[in-house]
Amino acid sequence: MKRLVAFAFLVIGGIGMASVAHAGWVVEWSNVVIQKSGQSLPADTSIMQIQGNKVRLAQPRSVTLIDYKKDTFTIMNPETQSFWSGTLEQYLDEVSKKRQAATERRLGRLRQRSAKTPGVDEAKLPQITIRKTDQTKTIAGHNVVKYEILSAGENFQEMWFAEDVDVSSDLDPDKFLAYQRTMSTSMQGQAGSRYKALYRNDDYRKLVSKGFALEVITRHIAGGFDRTVTAIRREDIPSSVFEIPEHYRRVALADVLPMPEQPASMTLPNAALTPGVKSAPKSGAAAR
Questions:
Q1: Per-residue model confidence as pLDDT tens digits over 24-43
Q2: Is the pLDDT of residue 56 over 50?
Q3: CATH superfamily assigned to domain 24-114+125-256
Q4: HSE-CB of 199 using CA atoms within 13 angstroms
Q5: How confident is the model over 100-126, as a mean pLDDT?
């Protein structure tokens, strides 16, 4: 079953004698997968930290680090104390190779072809429409307004937006969206087309540049996903939070966690959330 792994971003600061940067952001999330039947699975929790165009997402069985300045993407498994790190392009190539190998096993034959991620034909992408509603409520102590995102006229996302939460000084929206456009090139199916279109939409860029979505409900053919902020605060965070522990071992990507057939995607801290699901299941074999 295809899975999308949600990711997040987070904070630099000082530790010990080190200098402390300006306060970043710490965001606590509740993440719920909605099945096709409409039934909701038990919620998972995650903690996102954002600062200085660096991001950290801690889930129950994995930690993801993203450095938007250096273009590094890191996945760590605290249980096995192992990690994989590389560029986003290297990550997508690994995911594509894994997906191609799985397809060939199912078909019972080997096809010689490139595992590179395909390009995007923007002319074939669905039209994205963003509508602001007059519905409001309070989430984590902030007033939010509901926005509806339609793809080719169909409901795609429901975003509850707080305009008094601005993290753009800690995560550049343009850098994030450029990263997401690259990430989405390896996504497949109807959901993949929707995200590719969304990240290229100018109204969406404007929206995510002026606030923060405290709840995002995403709908797709297999059900949906609901991410809700339970707490958000400013906080000075040590720079070591964004570093790989010295005692962790570098391993192949497939040995860190079970490989998703879809590329990992991330949440957008300063506004909307992109696809995400529950954290990756525990790996049955530790990396050697």
A1: 999 999 999 888 888 888 99
A2: yes
A3: Lipoprotein localisation LolA/LolB/LppX (2.50.20.10)
A4: 27
A5: 69
